[in-house]
């Protein structure tokens, strides 16, 4: 016969039940963890599609920088007033791929040109501040772009593409 005081005392059997349950729970989590984590995308995939932020404050007027987004070179140009005026003075109908300068930049931030730095002819990377129009020059096949990234001469069929971007502040942009 058991007394009330002995019924309240945990027995060895109670300990074995709790210990077995804890080991089973840890084993279930350890077994399920790899299956659940393999469903997450690879870190390089996440990084490849992630937007990037670029601080524009250290870029001097007339200077270009190159950053990478989704494995592509992005040229960011801080254009001078002269470069902007020259780009706007071009008669759009005379261009092989007609596009006005104000359609390639953000309103209120006309001094900043952001383009994907891949030649639309065969995928070469052009050189900034080269060529007859002080824009971009592709030395591989001779495509010449102006200060707005528009094709002016050579075999390239289209302008340098503008990536999706927005101004986070006056001195910072987010690409992607």
The fourth-level CATH homologous superfamily of the largest domain is: Rieske [2Fe-2S] iron-sulphur domain
CATH architecture of the largest domain: 3-layer Sandwich
The helix tally amounts to 4
End-to-end CA span: 76 Å
CATH class of the largest domain: Mainly Beta
Largest sheet: 4 strands, antiparallel
**Average predicted local confidence, pLDDT:** 90
- List segments where confidence is low: pLDDT < 50 over at least 5 consecutive residues: none
Considering DSSP H and I runs of 4 or more, what fraction of the residues is helical? Answer: 25-40%
Estimated radius of gyration: 30 Å
Any idea how many domains?
2
Task: Encode the helix/strand succession as letters.
Answer: HHHEEEHEEEEEEE
Strand order of the largest sheet: 5-6-7-8
How much of the sequence lies in strands comes to: 25-35%
Any idea of the CATH topology of the largest domain?
Rieske Iron-sulfur Protein
Task: Characterise this structure.
The chain has 176 residues and is of the alpha+beta class. It has four helices and ten strands, in the order H-H-H-E-E-E-H-E-E-E-E-E-E-E. The protein folds into two domains: 4-37; 46-175, Rieske Iron-sulfur Protein (3-layer Sandwich), CATH 2.102.10.10. It has helices at 4-8, 12-37, 43-49, 81-89; strands at 52-55, 64-69, 72-78, 112-116, 127-130, 135-138, 143-145, 151-153, 165-169, 172-175. The longest helix has 26 residues, at 12-37.
């Amino acid at each position: 016969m058991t007394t009330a005081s002995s019924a309240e005392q945990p027995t060895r059997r109670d300990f074995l039940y709790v210990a077995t349950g804890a080991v089973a729970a840890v084993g279930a989590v350890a077994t399920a963890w790899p299956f659940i984590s393999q469903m997450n995308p690879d870190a390089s995939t996440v990084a490849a599609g992630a937007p990037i932020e670029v601080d524009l404050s250290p870029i001097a007027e007339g200077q270009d920088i190159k950053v990478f987004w989704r494995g592509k070179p992005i040229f960011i140009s801080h254009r001078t007033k002269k470069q902007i005026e020259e780009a706007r003075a071009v008669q759009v109908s005379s261009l092989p791929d007609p596009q006005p300068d104000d359609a390639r930049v953000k309103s209120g931030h006309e001094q900043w040109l952001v383009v994907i730095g891949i030649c639309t002819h065969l995928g070469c990377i052009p050189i900034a501040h080269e060529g007859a129009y002080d824009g971009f020059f592709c030395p591989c096949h001779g495509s010449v772009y102006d200060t707005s990234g528009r094709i002016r001469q050579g075999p390239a069929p289209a302008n340098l593409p503008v990536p999706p971007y927005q101004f986070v502040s006056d001195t910072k942009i987010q690409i992607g």
